[in-house]
Specification:
Elements lengths: L9 H26 L9 E13 L2 E12 L2 H22 L6 E13 L5 E14 L2 H9 L5 E8 L2 H29 L5 E13 L11 H6 L11 E14 L1
Antiparallel strand pairs: 1-7, 2-4, 2-5, 3-4, 6-7
Length: 249
């Protein structure tokens, strides 16, 4: 018996090698397709939102006391503003009691002053001291006793404590309205119920409009008594909005 020991031709070997690589590559590319699962497209999905809101009395008063100075050099303006600010802070801190109100400095700046021809004519600057808190009567009384500064702006708002206390109540109201509307929509389209898919909750409050006080001349203010500044609070609206999507079923 004769055994053929002849080696295959190079052309046949190359063809067989290419065939093996091709089959292997085909198996690799087909495997993901075979394992992939078709994700069903969601149907009967409805987007909706609902809100809840409550109007509440404003309980936080902010008063901005301000003053301006002018001089030929910046250092003089800065020193005058510094003295006015320190005097106002000392006067307010002497009146404040723990829990009455908060006192802090506001804006402070010195800027060049230009004449009509564009030439620098000196320096001017302004400084602020801010009083804020829930004790409206004491704040208005303290602001009226500060000399060297005038009331530039007053505004009422809602304190963080009051807003946080109301947000839970308003949020529950918005969620109940969202659920009721989703059930109503499902019933209107002939479905027995719904399934919540996604939801987002956002809260906001609308601050009251600030009350601007007309600045008074220092001489006129000095001639006036130390009577409290007349103030009256308004209301703020705390609102919560619930938005999202439900799938009717």
């Amino acid at each position: 018996m004769t055994v053929n020991t002849q080696m295959p031709s190079p052309r046949f070997a190359s063809f067989r090698h290419a065939l093996v690589i091709g089959l292997a590559f085909g198996a690799l590319t087909l495997a993901p397709v075979a394992n992939a699962q078709t994700v069903p497209v969601p149907s009967n999905v409805v987007q909706l939102q609902a809100s809840g809101s409550v109007d509440v009395p404003q309980d936080w008063l902010t008063v901005r006391l301000s003053t301006t100075r002018e001089a030929s050099d910046a250092a003089t303006v800065q020193n005058q503003l510094k003295q006015a600010t320190e005097a106002a802070l000392a006067s307010l801190r002497a009146q404040v009691r723990p829990g009455d109100f908060e006192v802090r400095t506001g804006s402070f700046g010195v800027y060049p002053r230009y004449a009509s021809a564009g030439k620098m004519a000196g320096w001017h600057g302004s400084a602020e001291v801010i009083i804020e808190g829930r004790d409206i009567e004491r704040i208005s009384a303290a602001a009226g006793k500060v000399s060297g500064m005038t009331v530039g702006q007053m505004g009422f708002s809602l304190s963080r404590e009051a807003r946080r206390k109301l947000e839970s109540q308003v949020q529950a109201m918005a969620i109940d309205r969202f659920k009721a509307r989703a059930a109503e929509i499902a019933q209107g389209f002939g479905f027995t119920g719904y399934q919540l898919r996604e939801v987002s909750v956002s809260a906001a409050d609308e601050p009251g409009r600030p009350i601007y006080a007309r600045p008074m001349a220092m001489e006129a203010k000095a001639a006036m008594s130390d009577a409290p500044i007349p103030v009256e609070a308004g209301t703020s609206t705390v609102s919560v909005t619930v938005s999202g999507s439900v799938q009717l079923r």
